[in-house]
Amino acid sequence: MSDQIVPILMPKWGLSMKVGTLAAWHVEEGTQINPGDEIMDVETDKIANVVEAADGGLLRRCVGTAGEIYPVQALLGVLAPASVSDAEIDAYVAAFEMPEVEEDGEEAPSHQTADLEIGRIRYLTREGEGTPVIFIHGFGGDSDNWLFNVDAVAADAPVYALDLPGHGGSVKSIDNPGLGTMVTAVIQLMDHLSIEKAHLVGHSMGGLVSGQTAIDHVGRVASLTLICSAGLGDEINPDYIGGFVSAASRKELKPVLKHLFADDSLVSRSMVDDLLKYKRLDGVQAFLDALKGNLFSQGKQGASIAAGVAASGVPTTVIWGAEDAVIPPSHASAISGAKVEVIADAGHMVMMENAARVNELIKAQL
Amino acid sequence: MARTLSMKDAINEAIDQEMARDKTVIMMGEDIVGGAGAAGEDDAWGGVLGVSKGLYHKHPKQMIDTPLSESAYVGAAIGAATCGLRPIAELMFIDFMGVCLDQIYNQAAKFRYMFGGKAETPVVIRAMCGAGFRAAAQHSQMLTPIFTHIPGLKVVCPSNAYDTKGLLIQAIRDNDPVIFLEHKNLYASECDVPEEPYAIPFGEANIAREGSDVTIVAYGLMVPNSLAAAETLKKEGIDCEVIDLRTLSPIDMDTVIESVEETGRLVCVDEANPRCSIATDVSATVARDAFKALKAPIEMVTAPHTPVPFSPSLEDLYIPSPDRIAEAVRKTMGA
C-alpha cells in the first residue's frame, strides 16, 4: 500500500534555493538503495553536489528526468518494495502534488539577528529537541557554509549557525578583532538565546573558536566537532589566507578558492561573486587584514588549543579532508583522546564535499 | 544583509549612506527637495521620478534645490568640488547636458591635467538616459559615447540595482568627475542589495552569464535584453556569455578579450546610435587585439542612425530587442 511508498524529493540546499537541476541519476530503476548511497547529481546556481539517499528501498520509478529543472521538494523518484503494484505507484505519482516554485517576497526571513553587546550577530536556526548544536564557520566564511549540514543535523537536535563578527550579516566594525572577539560573540549569543550548554561544530578558524570556547567556558560546551580546524599546529597555507585577504577581483579570488576543495570544479561563479560582494562591504577589508594579522601573522598559526581541549575533558571528534590544501591533515592527531576521522577525496570544505559522512560523525557525537 | 531593492531605491540609499558618512557630500538639482522651497513636506517630489524622496528630511543641509539652469548649477557643483565638497549634480535627463558641456568637458575634465595634478574635481553628474519611456527625441538619448570620448571623465551606466548602489558609492568617493547614467526603464528593476554600504571598483566588467559559444558585450538596458536573448538561444543549443561593461570609462577590455579568446565570436550591443559608439569601440579593439581568435565576423546591434521616434511603435523598433540580438548571435554561428 501507499504507506510503503517512499518519495525521493528535490533537496533544499540553503534558504535561497528554489529550484535545482537534476543533472544525472546514478542508479537505475530496479536498484536496491541503501541510505547514504549516491543516487543523483543536483545543480543549483550556487553549487553542484551529489545527493545521497536519505531512505533505503527498491527504486521503482525515476520520475525526474536528467537535465530538467525541478522545484524544491518536487518528486524525483519512488522507492517501494516489489510487493507494491505498478498501478499503485502510478496512482502515487499522479496524486503527488508538485510544489510550486516559491515566489520572492513570500518567504520567512532566512536569518535572525541578535543585537548583542559586541554588536549585531546574524544566525540561522532550526527548531528541535535536546541540547542545541551551534555551527561556527571559518575565516571569511558565514553560516551558509553549512548548507548541507544544518537540515540533516536538525533532525536530531535544535541547530544554530552564526555569522561570526566581521562575517556574513554580522557587525563589521570591530576594533582589533581576534580569537577573544569570536569566543565572546559565541558566548553572548548563547546567553541571548538562553542556551546553557551546546555542542559546538567548528570549521577551520571556527574550530579554533569552538575549542577556545570549551577551554574558557568548559561548562557551556557539551562536545566539540572540529573540522579541518585551526589551532592544532603551526602550518597554514599562506597562499590561501593571504590570497583571500588581498584578492580584489573575481580573477584574483577564483584561484584562491580552489584551495578549498579536492574537486575544484565546485568553485562556482556564484560562490566567487558572493564572496566578492562580502569583501566589498565597508569595513570588511580592514577587518580581515586585522584578523589575519592577529591569528595568522607571518604565514603561521598563532594560537593552539590542542593541549587545552585535551585537558578540558570535553568529548571531541576531529574530522579532516585528506586533500585539505589549507591546513595539513597531519594536524588531525594533535588532541590526545579525541576521536579522529580523515575523509578521503575531500578538501578543506569536507563538510560540503562529503556532507553525509560529516553529518553522521556530528550526530554520533550528540 | 541583502534584501530586494529597486534600482531607484538603490540610488537613494547610496546617496543617503554617503551623506551620513561624509558631510561634504551634497546634492544639487531641479525639484530634488520639494520644489518651490517646500520645507520638506512628506509629499515632496524628490526629483522628476522621486529618486531623492526623503533625503531632504535626513540631510537638510546637504540637499539643494536649484533654478532651472543646468549650466549654472552644474558649473557651481564643479566649482564646489574643486573647493573641497563632493557634490552630486542631478540633471533630469542626459539630453540636457548639452547646455553645460563647457563646464563638463572643458572645465571639470581638464582641471587635474591643466593644474599639474594639484586640482581634484570629485563631482558626480547623475542623469537618466535611454529610450522606451515615450518621452521623444530630446529626453530619450543614449549619449554614453559622447562622454566616453572625453579624457578626464569617468562614465558609468549600470544594469541592475546591486551594481547601481556600489558604483554610485564608488563615484561619490572617487576624486575625479564621474558621469553616472541611469537607464530610466531600469528604475523599477529589483535584485538583492546589501543594506551596508559597499563600493564596486571602476573598470571591472561583470560576467552576467557564462557561456562558451558567443560573447555578447552590453551595458545598461541592453544587459537584460541580451540575457533574454541568451535564454532564447539556449533552447537552440547556443551558449552565450553576456558581459556587462558597467563602466565605459575606464573600460575593462581584458575581460572582453579573454572571453572572445574562448568563444571566438562577438556581438556588441549598444543602445546608442551606431556611429562612433561603445559597440564600434569594443569591436575595433577586439578586431585589433584578438583577431586570430575570431571564428566569424563581429556583429553589432545598435539603434539606427536616427533620433529616437516619438511614435511608440517606432520607438519599440528603435531599441535593440532580444529578438534582434538573438538574430545577430545566430549570424555569428553561421545560421
Automatic annotation (TrEMBL), chain B:
Swiss-Prot/TrEMBL keywords: Oxidoreductase
This protein's name: Alpha-ketoacid dehydrogenase subunit beta
Top-rank taxon, per record: Bacteria
CDD domains: TPP_PYR_E1-PDHc-beta_like (cd07036)
Keyword Oxidoreductase: yes
NCBIfam families noted in UniProt: PRK09212.1
InterPro entries from the UniProt entry: THDP-binding, Transketo_C/PFOR_II, Transketolase-like_Pyr-bd, Transketolase_C
SMART domains registered for this protein in UniProt: Transket_pyr (SM00861)
PANTHER family to which the protein is assigned, alphabetical: ACETOIN:2,6-DICHLOROPHENOLINDOPHENOL OXIDOREDUCTASE SUBUNIT BETA (PTHR43257:SF3), PYRUVATE DEHYDROGENASE E1 COMPONENT BETA SUBUNIT (PTHR43257)
Coiled-coil regions listed in the entry: none
Residue span(s) of domain Transketolase-like pyrimidine-binding: 5-189
Gene3D superfamilies listed in its UniProt record: 3.40.50.920, 3.40.50.970
